[in-house]
């Protein structure tokens, strides 16, 4: 793939703290990359380096084959949408959107035309003369987007533009945003700490943890294989262990990996079975549904059961400090707290993590 | 924005310029004169100046020092007694004319000290309204002349607004529920005042009192004009020793003492304010709903308080209209005529012209230096920024007389500026500079950094970012700062008295000279000038309050 944006081995220190540690990535033309990570993970710093608002301590940023280091921010042709929109309060909507065009020396007539076009694109036609402090949060972000899009930047950077909005609005705007970016065939880097946003918006997702690019892949691939334990935990996987912490009966499932191998068990891959006591036998055995091939089973008791609306979350205590979190569909009636149940893992819903990390 | 070598160099050069302009200004016109003055004083000690030993060894010095403290203390107490009822009424009750009441009692504080002194002379002085009235009624004129009571009253009048604004503003923001809780818990109105209001108000009271004390401690014009030749505080003693007795070493050492004491009081005040910041937590809240209760007492109090506060200024207006024993506009129509006493008394119109020119010039200087300093301090990320801000604010803690003395002692090197109009312009700009910074710095800091960054990513060069984003956003503050500097220059008296040549006298200096040269028309003329100065100052501050309002609800206009 030909790279429009090429980032090579970026390092950045803030005092004694290394905020970015050897970041390299490549972004093809028309691609949307979401930078996903917890706050303080270095996402915003990376974005500011791309925009030229901060300089990296080491490494290179190239846009369209040109090294950006000597290029001042206002000559980079890189657009930036801020979390709080950063609209100019002394200018109205039209003048805000036209600002970049004015800087580029565009004639007033053409400017007006372009502003009209942009406002139509973001769904704010007719608001040209409005004062910006009278706009709602969603409208402000749409104006900010139009303002950044107007001068046709080669690369658009978005710094958590939906972060300050409430949930419903955020989802709607995220959808619109992707449509707009794709319609304009823009190359964009979108920073967020919200997973859903990252997965629904990006062509690819880069996970940034503690200044390191942990993994970069398509949403589907990332979802299927989180890669490293850190990424898995960040993505909200509750059952990430090292192999030696697992009960012996589960350990066998992972083949002959080493003791230190990290493993992931998907909470939706855990099946619960009622226990039927059998006389004369050493212990209880789970009942398996016919045609279903469970990979392994053990007994545990239900430590906690919570209802989350769309699913039940059940914590299963196996004794010896080992607890698994299962996610059960609402259609299943879950066992009461304190009950003993048989636990089985579905095929394909558990895997070792470390070996996947290598092939990034 | 460390991208590219030339850009970096340009930025560094620009930043350096922003720092250098105000730094050089302060170095030459503030630190150099004061240090030079201190040096002269101490070399006097070294040389064993006999005048020094005579003054500082005798009880003269102790009594001057003690009297300075004493009159400041009395003035502060009087101001509190005088202003607290007004603050209470305004904070707790809604009554017709509440806004006018606040305006009337706040006005004196923005007026130059000379105007306040003139107003009190016109009311209570030997040729004042009271004297006329009493001799008409009782056949014997009642008046005050060269009296401590006159000084105390003028100080109370002048500083009423300080207590009123700080304490009253705080009082109005204490939530109604606090009083209700006290009442439900069984406290009557007196006990709820004693046990609830007083402890809650203590920080505000203390802060206001210290501020009033500071103003009275370094008061010059009022004491000089109302206290008479026998009354001496540190400020007036410095002036007298330097300008009348030509005992420069004594004057310089006194000035050093005065500077140190000023810094000390300001330091304590700043400390206390910081300490009570948590206690003053209500101050962010809006004023609570006021009781509409039909209480006679509060309304009566407001009426009496307001009337008393309105008396001196009204008396001054009346006095300006009374020539001899008849009413006439002669004082105004003759403003353009030279007075008989040629050298000392230039025509009022000329004084007004000087004042305006000096005010405009010093406004420009203060604005330029203040803008640079504010821009530098708000954007630089270097360490020691707080220290530097304190440094830039120092002139605020320096009273005018030592400054004026330092000017005439030091500014003949490398070029002799003494006697030139430049000296007075610089003195006024120096007094105005910290106020300009106080207004501009918060305005600069309130412009979000990402607005500038947004402009840059949209292709605006640093210069265009300044011109098209930063500047329009701080413009109202620049206007406010300009008015501040202008008004301060217009009313400045202490430093002007030192620095100005008689034929270049400003309006306040002229008022002082006219009042100290008795003459049939000199007195009403002085009052007429006082009225002019009052009108100009009040008008400027009216404009200022409008601008401040604009800064809060900034109107958005499209700039094409």
How would you describe this structure in keywords?
heterodimer, A: 360 residues, alpha+beta, Rossmann fold, OB fold (Dihydrolipoamide Acetyltransferase, E2P), 2 domains, 6-stranded mixed beta sheet, 5-stranded antiparallel beta sheet, 10 helices, 20 strands, disordered C terminus, B: 560 residues, mainly alpha, MetI-like fold, two-stranded antiparallel ribbon, 23 helices, 2 strands
Question: In a few lines, what is going on in this structure?
Answer:
Chain B: This is Thiamine transport system permease protein. The complex is a heterodimer of chains A (360) and B (560). With 360 residues, chain A is α+β, with helices and mostly antiparallel strands.
Q: Could you explain how this protein is built, in words?
A:
The complex is a heterodimer of chains A (360) and B (560). Chain A is α+β, with helices and mostly antiparallel strands and 360 residues long. Chain A folds into 2 domains: 3-227, P-loop containing nucleotide triphosphate hydrolases (Rossmann fold); 240-358, OB fold (Dihydrolipoamide Acetyltransferase, E2P). Chain A contains 10 helices and 20 strands. In chain A, helix 2 (93-103) packs across helix 3 and helix 2 (93-103) runs parallel beside helix 4 (137-149). The longest helix of chain A has 17 residues, at 167-183. The two termini of chain A are 16 Å apart. Residues 280-292 and 356-360 of chain A have low confidence and may be disordered. Chain B is mainly α. In chain B, 75% of the residues lie in helices and 1% in strands. Chain B has 23 helices and 2 strands. Chain B has a two-stranded antiparallel ribbon with strand order 1-2. In chain B, a hairpin with a 2-residue loop joins strand 1 (322-323) and strand 2 (326-327). In chain B, helix 3 (59-92) packs across helix 13 (296-320), helix 4 (98-110) packs across helix 13 and helix 15 runs parallel beside helix 18. Residues 554-560 of chain B have low confidence and may be disordered. The chains are: A alpha+beta (360), B mainly alpha (560). The A-B interface holds A 51-53, 55, 69-80, 82, 84, 86, 88-92, 94-95, 99-100, 103-104, 129, 131-133, 147-148, 151, 157 and B 1-5, 7, 448, 450-451, 453-462, 464-465, 468-469, 472-473, 554, 556-560. Chain A: Residues 5-235 form the ABC transporter domain. Chain A: One of its GO terms (biological process) is quaternary ammonium group transport. Chain A: One of its GO terms (molecular function) is transmembrane transporter activity. Chain A: One of its GO terms (cellular component) is ATP-binding cassette (ABC) transporter complex.
